[in-house]
């Protein structure tokens, strides 16, 4: 589970109420799409919580309660449960995000919860207090009764009065959450340093794990040029030396930088990018291109001509079986790879005349490398902004040496087969809404009522469920997971 540790604490807070605390350390480094808590008991039955760290096909943290042993339960079993799911604010507890639900659990419908608990952008912002020391704390309270009659009894005592008070607090926090979402945009800034730190360690395919880069929470009316000044303070890169590239999803489902921002876009508010793509974007991802002089100090970006493309380069060392990021180049699409060999040797620290081989990292549909034809231009090889070139010393030079994976193609194939869970940005793209860069496709904002209706649980069993809130995002984890990601 991505190296996370789990610590649980259960206690009876009141008759019929069982509380459970689940702590997940190193939460931002968790790679699993689903996490399961330890088993705890309430009402004589075993339960566990489910978390989708990157959301269940949504840009929110998703949390559910489920029976831990549904397969062993007798046919016809049911249990009516009221429960709360709380993401604890570890700085100010009163700002903890709480979701309340009621559900009649059966052998067939064994889990229930909330798809949209807290926006991921707010969750992963350490200043908000929900991730402190990269630790997530979730509290679950389960009020158990055999049937609706028992619940009616609870209504007659002080426990439900306390519940009503909590419901009111939840609604207030929910309204504040919505207001924040309307006012702010989350901007993730990806830098060369991120690629160098992650490639060959955390990831091997694609460029970066977007969950491990610096995020900024920016008011939507803020000018992008003002945001650049904040970036200058954070990274020590003067605003005049910054060039930002928009990331977008491509036809092969890769997610890459595809064009730089224009001067007009940089003069406008950061909330403009919904209009740029014609779709709703919960988070904006940008690549920060910074050129450095001989003294490694930032300098003005290279002038980008119309035919220039931005390529990224990984170096493979067969003897060490090591893959690492070495940099990027702005090249003219009418040039040939043979014209940049000297620059690549410099990036790798090789002699200028070292013979090297170039391979393009492609996804058709699986990850693989294809040799780059030195005789063709970049345009003829259909290379474009954001493409990845892997290179190495001429593999025929060390034919005598016993090297397990002589070229980068065989090495990446080995990594993919032996470590299929190794992170790439594929999972990130598939599990969230991102802008699409294909010029032939137009996007329109879908009617919000249609989106809400699709989020509701449409099965007949839903008529049996009694919900504590009128929420379109409450339901089973399975039902939500089956829905395709929508560009809306």
From TrEMBL:
Polar residues bias: start-end ranges: 477-488
GO terms (BP aspect): proteolysis
Biased composition (Acidic residues): 442-463
Disordered as annotated region, ranges: 439-488
UniProt-listed InterPro entries: MATH/TRAF_dom, MCC, TRAF-like, USP7_ICP0-binding_dom
Keyword Protease listed: yes
GO cellular component, one term: nucleus
GO molecular function (one): deubiquitinase activity
Domain (MATH): residue spans on this chain: 17-142
Keywords: Coiled coil, Hydrolase, Protease, Thiol protease, Ubl conjugation pathway
Amino-acid biosynthesis as UniProt keyword: no
UniProt superkingdom: Eukaryota
Family per similarity comment: Belongs to the peptidase C19 family.
Name of this protein: Ubiquitin carboxyl-terminal hydrolase
């Amino acid at each position: 589970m991505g190296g996370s540790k789990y610590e649980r604490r259960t206690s009876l807070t009141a008759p019929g109420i069982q509380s459970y605390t689940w702590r997940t350390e190193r939460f931002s480094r968790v790679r699993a799409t689903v996490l399961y808590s330890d088993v705890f008991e309430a009402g004589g039955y075993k339960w566990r919580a489910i978390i989708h760290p990157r959301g269940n096909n949504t840009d929110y943290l998703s949390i559910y309660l489920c029976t831990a042993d549904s397969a062993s339960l007798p046919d016809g079993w049911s249990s009516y449960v009221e429960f709360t799911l709380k993401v604890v604010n570890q700085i100010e507890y009163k700002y903890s995000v709480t979701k309340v639900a009621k559900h009649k659990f059966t052998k067939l419908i064994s889990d229930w919860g909330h798809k949209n608990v807290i926006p991921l952008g707010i969750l992963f912002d350490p200043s908000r207090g929900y991730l402190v020391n990269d630790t997530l704390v979730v509290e679950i309270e389960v009020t158990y009764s055999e049937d609706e009659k028992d619940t009616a009894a609870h209504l007659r005592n002080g426990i439900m009065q306390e519940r009503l008070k909590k419901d009111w607090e939840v609604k207030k926090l929910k309204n504040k959450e919505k207001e924040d979402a309307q006012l702010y945009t989350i901007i993730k800034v990806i830098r060369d340093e991120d690629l160098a730190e992650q490639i060959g360690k955390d990831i091997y395919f694609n460029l970066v794990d977007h969950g491990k880069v610096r995020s900024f929470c920016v008011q939507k009316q803020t000018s992008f040029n003002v945001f650049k000044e904040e970036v200058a303070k954070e990274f020590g890169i003067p605003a005049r030396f910054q060039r930002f590239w928009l990331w977008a999803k491509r036809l092969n489902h890769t997610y890459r930088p595809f064009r730089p921002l224009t001067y007009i876009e940089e003069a406008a508010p950061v909330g403009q990018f919904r209009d740029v793509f014609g779709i709703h974007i919960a988070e904006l991802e940008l690549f920060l291109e910074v050129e450095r002089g001989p003294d490694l100090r930032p300098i003005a970006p290279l002038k980008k001509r119309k035919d220039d493309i931005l390529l990224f380069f990984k170096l493979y060392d067969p003897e060490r079986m090591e893959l690492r990021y070495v940099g990027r180049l702005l090249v003219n699409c009418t040039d040939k790879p043979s014209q940049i060999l000297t620059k690549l040797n410099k990036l790798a620290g090789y002699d200028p005349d070292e013979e090297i081989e170039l391979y393009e990292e492609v996804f058709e549909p699986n990850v693989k490398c294809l040799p780059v034809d030195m005789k063709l231009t970049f345009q003829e090889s259909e290379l474009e902004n954001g493409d990845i070139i892997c290179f190495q010393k001429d593999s025929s030079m060390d034919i005598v040496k016993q090297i397990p994976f002589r070229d980068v193609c065989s090495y990446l194939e080995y990594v993919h087969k032996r470590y299929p869970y190794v992170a790439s940005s594929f999972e990130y793209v598939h599990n969230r809404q991102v802008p699409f860069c294909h010029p032939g496709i137009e996007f329109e904002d879908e009617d919000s009522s249609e989106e809400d209706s699709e989020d509701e649980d449409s099965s007949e069993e839903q008529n049996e469920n009694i919900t504590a809130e009128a929420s379109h995002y409450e339901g089973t984890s399975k039902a939500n997971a089956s829905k395709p990601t929508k560009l809306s």
